[in-house]
Amino acid sequence: MLVVLDACVLYPPSLRDLLLTLAASDAFDIRWSETILEELRRNVVADYPDVDPDRFSSHTLVEMRRHFPEAMVAVSPDDIDRLDNDPKDRHVAAAAVVVAADAIVTINVRDFHSRLLDEAGIAVVSSGQLVEQVLDEHPEQVEYALRRIAQRWAKPPRSPVEVAELWLGTQRWQRR
How far is it, in rounded angstroms, from Cα 14 to Cα 11? Predict the structure, then answer.
């Protein structure tokens, strides 16, 4: 499955970690544009004045680009102008159309109501829906991702089950 990640799902560090770890384990393929990454940087820096903008760019964004070199999508102004969803999110929809994505992953589903996206067969899903789908279809990839994340997280340390409960909730995870 090919998905375009909106800046809002890349913004929370723990969610970004989950989605990128799942993508690295081939649970799905990801795409983004320079505009999406710039929106992420701008929002993180605006909301967290203690975050050094240069460090965020030179560390987080560079690492994202390094680990996912195929993720970058070139989107032209003409691509954006053709879209009919919420104007502030047309750049995301344009990236999805350019790469013929299966879905856009966002928190702001309502901003993507679009005849053109419907005609292109591009679904708009929340990050929770995407993770649930992967959990249903490839539970071993989700379990692998959760173990990897738990190994990386030291402050505070968490088990894979505790990491899972952050996104999946206790009941959903315990049914497994």
Answer: 9
- List the structure tokens of 170: 């206790």
Q: What is the pLDDT of residues 10-26, one digit of tens each?
A: 999 889 999 999 999 99
For the record, the structure tokens of 29 come out as 């393929």
| Helix/strand/coil for 123 | strand
Token code pair at residue 142: 């989700």
β-pairing, 103-105 vs 72-73, is: unpaired
**CB of 83 closer than 8 Å to CB of 94:** yes
Instruction: Determine the residue type at 71.
Output: A
Cα–Cα distance, 166 to 172 (Å, whole number):
11
Query: In this structure, which topology does domain 2-126 adopt according to CATH?
Result: Rossmann fold (3.40.50)
Phi/psi for 123 (5° steps) reads -75, 155
Domains of the chain, by residue range, sit at 2-126
What is the amino acid identity at position 161? Answer: V
Query: From CA 84, how far away is CA 7, in angstroms rounded?
Result: 19
The whole model's pTM is what?
0.90
